[in-house]
Amino acid sequence: MAYSELIKNFECIRDYMRQFYVYGFKNRSEYDAKSARSYDNERRRIESWMGDYMSFHRDAGGKNVFLSVDSLNISANPLYQAFKAKSFTPGDITFHFYILDILADGKGRSVREILEETAQKYLFCFQTEQGLDESTVRKKLKEYEGLGLLKSEKHGRELFYNRAEDCIDLESWREAIAFFSEEDPLGVIGSYLLDKTQAKSSRFSFKHHYILHALDSEVLCSILLAISENRCAELTVVTPRSRGKARMHTVFPWKMLISTQTGRQYMLCYHYRFRRPMTFRLDNLCKVKAGAQERQAKKYGNWCEKYRENLWGVATGVEPALDHLEMTIHVDGGEEYIVERLEREKRCGSVEAMDPSTYRFSTDVYDAAEMLPWLRTFIGRIVKFKCTNPDVVHTFYSDLAAMGELYGGDEDAVQ
Amino acid sequence: MLFSEVYGSYYGAVAAVLTQAVDGTLTGEELEKIVQEKGFAESVLAIPAALRDGTWPLLTTELTTPLCHKPTMPLTTLQKRWLKSLLTDPRMALFSPSIAGLENIEPLYTPDVFVYFDRYGDGDPYHNPQYIAHFRTILTALREERKLQVTFDGHRGKKHSWECIPYKLEYSSKDDKFRLVTSSPRSTLSINLARIRACTMLEPYTQEEFRPIPPKKETLVLELRDERNALERVMLHFSHLEKETERLDESRYRVTLNYEREDETELLIRVLSFGPVLRVISPNRFIKKMRERIEKQLRLRA
Questions:
Q1: What fold is seen in the domain A212-308?
Q2: Which residues does chain A have within 8 Å of residue B15's beta carbon, measured at their own beta carbons?
Q3: Backbone phi, psi, residue B136, to 5°
Q4: Residue to test with chain A: of B19, B38, B40, most A Cβ within 10 A
Q5: Which of A212, A263, A249 is nearest to A80 (CA)?
Q6: N or C: which end of chain B has fewer CB within 10 A?
């Protein structure tokens, strides 16, 4: 089949884009999931969509392709481009413009009338082999009704189609859309809308802006649709540990947990088989299929909310019991901003002043090991550190000793 | 259906081509130019040919079209539901779109569906009328390219007043704060919107006056040891910065990051958070600060 910039299935490209963006040190032979030809085609497509954001470097292993983006200097997420590359048939694009043109005068028409006009007003102008297949047109009309582009009404035994009403003043929305297309987890929809407006440079820039989540938009959209209707969902999950093997899970999706410090997105849900709330990383979900409506939505939702109270991030550790953790820090005069940091960065627990220069943070969480990265940001100030999980204390101090060795000695030692 | 050709770049490019064809002004040169602007890098090899050879019977050989109207497409239900969801976001109070046409639309989600579990707890006051008024004045000044007179509280509580050229509104999801980034020929200043006490629009600025100074960039070189899934964690954590990664051997990588000088302290604690799996190779100034903090901590334990 001839090469095309367009793709039928987004899932095929998702992993390549993630690897180019996140890692960027692999060469062609290391992309072993597909054939070398498939790699060449996918790389060419991504280069075609991403343009200047693609970079290359060579090392002993060959040419490495990567996506490098300083997200503070972009006003639009370049990964959204991939969502604008869906393939279609000649019939799809032709009938798209014909149908919307026929119905542009606001007058409803039956399928028969649409077929007649298509033949007489449009196809007549061309010596085309493209036939006028009634069932294709019917399917297209039905599909467009599902998308919300058309509406239908029965007149007697005939179905009449018209364009859906659309009196939304998109220009009045433009700045809000420019902001939320980057800031909202499903911002790709905003990007579609911006394509319909008179493009002007955005007045916004975004710091600590993680753009990779864009690749999970299709999965996220399916989850949000299931949540909005209180439906359970069937997940197809492939984790790095499962070595490409897909596993199925049936869950009741409840909320999306999102990290503003890595961009990772998780779904918090009730797992029917495991009979407990749990989380799934969105980039491990290949497919989400909405199932039946859940009659006990409130009960499962309450369990999930209760579960969330003692989550630091998303991990629950091996044991279901809680870890109690206390960190006491020293603050010099004029360093009140450190106490402010404790207050604004703690996600649960409390901060207590022991004396004017000593503050204690304490909390109970499912997995205190998950707190270690945050605790290390206070290195240089921690006067006391306690945790009921001895492994956490051991890891903290052994890591500290290892860091001491890494940076110890005279200045030349770390050159 | 989120991944659909109706949102695609090819449909957008063809709609733009047909718009000119309906006007009767389309030329072969224009056709290629539109596709180059609206399509992907290689679209010019596919779209004009398919339109010209009748694969997509929408353009005649004379570059006219049987379409009677300039192509338009109503918003899809998904697009409307997304817009309706935005109306429930507290930050929406900063904007003033027309909500006509969304009255009977169900939102796709409500804001409580998303939990930003590591977002800082002292975000901006989006419901404060004064804050909203300042935001809107700044946005208008940006739109109309006008100068601003801004009075704000400094970090130590001192009041400052500045005449400035607004450059950008910068938002951080982690901080949940907006900052006004200003530009002047001599310096650049960023002001937290929540610290602004008064904000007045002044006269338009000239293009000669608008010379935003690019922020001072630094390079940080790190060596990463891939233990405890560190490779993925580090790559994701710093993925918002311009970066390059090189594999040194089976488990060691060199990561080069470009960052803004004013963010150095923040970057320092972020590097610290990874513990011994990350080692700073350069600059020396950064290494020195790392060493100071670690040594101080080791002394505290003793």
A1: SH3 type barrels. (2.30.30)
A2: 97
A3: -70, -35
A4: B40
A5: A212
A6: C
